[in-house]
Every structure is written in structure tokens, then in C-alpha cells.
Amino acid sequence: MVNDDAWQRISPVRLSWADVDPARHPFDAGGALGVVRAVAPPVPPRPRWTPSGQVGRDDAERWRNAVSHALVDRYGRWACGWCWAGGEGDYDGGPVGSWCCVSDSIAGPEETLALVATSLCEWRGWLEHLAERFDRFLPLPDGDDDPDGLVVAWEIAVARLVTTTVDRTGSDSGWYGHCEQVLGWFLTAAGVAEERRQALINSAIGGRFESWVQPSPLVVRDIAERLAREVTGQPAAALVTLADPAGDWPDTWPQDWPSARGNTVPTVLQPPGRPRYEGRDDDLTAWQAVRARVDWAAVTRPVTGPVRGDRDGIAEHVARRPAGSAQLSAALEQARRDAADGGPLTFSRLEQWQRTVLGVPEAPFRTGPASAKGGRESYYWRDDLPEVFERCLLEATDDTVPLPSRAARVYLDVAFFHPFADGNARAAMLALAYVLARDGVLIDRAAPLLMTVRRAHDLLGAAGLAGLIEMLIDATRTRQRHDAG
Fold this sequence. Notes:
The protein is mostly helical. The chain is built from 20 helices and eight strands.
């Protein structure tokens, strides 16, 4: 029983809104790394595979659980979600992208502790984002004065929360569990009685969410309508009486959805003109939409160099690669020499570094569709794609945008434009290193930045990456000043 109680204490799937509501639990992100260093036990070796099985996993999981208990002791139960990774991580179906699992995320002691702090801040940022969204939707209209308006308000809130959680989790394995949890948190914040909440959610969703499957707009629309109707007690007909003759809907309605007020459902749910690849939604299009929505000038503050720690975090990360580290190290040096010369980032420069990385005489821009992540992401092709990519690269040296934002944006541009036949993740790292070096910045820790899988459709993740780079630069500067003093 003791062990079961201890497990429930650090199980993020058990968290209530009272446990995670940021208004109830103060948190200083700037001090997170110091707290992690102070409370975490010694970091064990990363588990390794042998012919007889995986060695060291039990020790690593005990260490992760001890970290969770220590963070809960320090901050409250909400903190146990720091390791709730997306997909099949340590816990299934979570919203954290920085941490994956003990088998992949444990590295050197200092890098691992930095990754824990980054993951804790990412988890907290997600909770704060949800709280902000709840505040936008609440309080709901008075149902006695405006019953139709109450239905509409519920419907919009549910739809937005579902689509936001889908984006955050990447609709990976078990994503729907956290989605139902988020809806339950919103019902709690809206004052719905505890005994009603789970039944309302179960009835609305009706088993239509699946692992690895992004729900269609029609499914999300129907779930939003159903939950709105059942929570308010309004008949289904109330949803039709508000039909909009123009077929329009306010900007708060999810983009590209068929109007929930129309009396007919379009037979084609895919918006016209949106590129597709082998029957799949295109992820480069998703990234371009995310890229346009992020306020890059505001998500981070201006950072100026020089900032140089006593270590080269990117070079150290490259040196630990099991294969190809010599070529990538040479390309990194080449990129930094080019940065010292100044000038814009161009595809020509990127292609020169890529030839060194791959050991090939030429590394041309791809000439057809591409895919990545085992086929889970796909990237379209059209004739003007190289020109569009070149314009994006030029923005990487636009000094009117803060350096952390520019570095994050170009890293994601290279990853999702996927310009080369091979080595695009390495090319993204080199582009980021170039942008940082051009402003005189050499971060001393890079594992939290380079060990995380990024998703093309993740709006919060894109902005969060910029914030992470800002945090790594600030931490390097702090250590630089401490060493100098």
C-alpha cells in the first residue's frame, strides 16, 4: 500500500485542477535549475542494451521517481508532470517534449539535471497556458439570460481545448488521456460538479479518440457540440437555430473548420489548396502556419553577445555522436568561421556545410516530397520551395528580432523544410550554431536543446524552443560572470 501511495503521489495522470492550477502554486522558472541540483540524487548511468536485455533501467527509474518526489516536496504535486513525455515515454501520452524517457534522456550529470529543469519549466508553461485559456473562456454567459450564448461559449471552449491538446501531444500514443484530463480540469474551473464531470466527458467523446490518430475536424466539432449540449442541458436543436447565413464564424473558432452553425456538413473537410503527400496531411504547411502565428519579436527578449562559457555545449554534443562526429565537428568549425566573417545565412552556405557533414561532392535541394520520423511527418514539394526557404534563411539574421527567437526559428525552418536528402537535423543544428556565433554567443550546455524531438504543428513548442535558447544563453552568461568573479 505504501508503494502504491508513493506511485500515485507522482503519477501525472492523477493530477486534479487543484493540484496544477498555477494560481495556487507559485513557481520561479529562473531558479528551477538550482532547485533541481539541490534536491536530485546523483544521476545514474544511462541504461544500456546487452544481449541479455537492458541493464540499469531499474536504477534509472528509481532515480527519476526520486527526482519527482523531491520536486513534489519542493513545489507541490503539479511538479510530478516534468517527465510526462509525448508518445511512449516514461508516462504515455503527455505534453512534455524536452524529456523522453530514462533510456534516452539521461546523459552526463550536469546535462541531465539541466534537462530535468527544462522539462519542469516546459510542463509549468503548459499549465500556465491552459490557465490563460481557461481565463479567456470563463466566466461563461448566464444561461438564464442567454441559453444559446451559453451553448456557443461551451462549444468554442471545448473545441479549442481539444485542438490545443492535440497539437501539444502530437496525437501520439495515449494522447487522449491527457486530452480528457484537460477537459476535466476545465469543467472543474467552470464549476461543474465532480460527480458529473467524467460521465459528461465519456458521453461526448464516446471512444472516438485513438492513439496515433489526429481527430478530424468533424469529430472534434461533434464532440464539442455534444459536450456543450449535455453540460448545459440544451437540446440539439438549439445548435441549429443559430445558423449563420454567411457560413462565417468568429476568429476564435478553430481555423479551417466547417461552420458549426451550418445546416449541412461539407463532404470535403480538407481545405482546398492545402498540399498533401501520399494521402497524409502535410507537415511543412503546418509549420508555415505555426511560423506565421508565433510572435517571434515578443516571445523572447533581446540578447547581445559576447556570451561564452568555459565549455562548448554544441561541440561536446557533436563529439558524443556514435558515428559521423568528425565530419560534423568539421562542419561546425566551418559554420563558425563563416559566422565570424558575418553576412546573411544562405542556402549556399548551408549546402557547403552539408557536403562536409555527408562527405559528398554536392548536397542539392531536394526535388520531391520528403518525410521524417518514420513517416509520421511529411513535407510537400513545389517549384518555388527553394526560394521560399531562402527567404526564411535570410530572416535568421534580421537583428530586429531577438536572437533566441531567430535561432529557434531557423532551427525549425531547416528541420521542417527538410531541404536535403539526408542529415537535416544536423543541418538545423549548424544553422542554429551559425546564428548564435554570428552574435558572439557560445552556449555551454546544449543537450536540452538538441536531444528533443520537435513537431511541425506544435505552436507552444516553437515558442518554447525560443524561450529555452534564451534560458541557455542566460545560464551561460551567469556561469561566465561567476567564473570571472
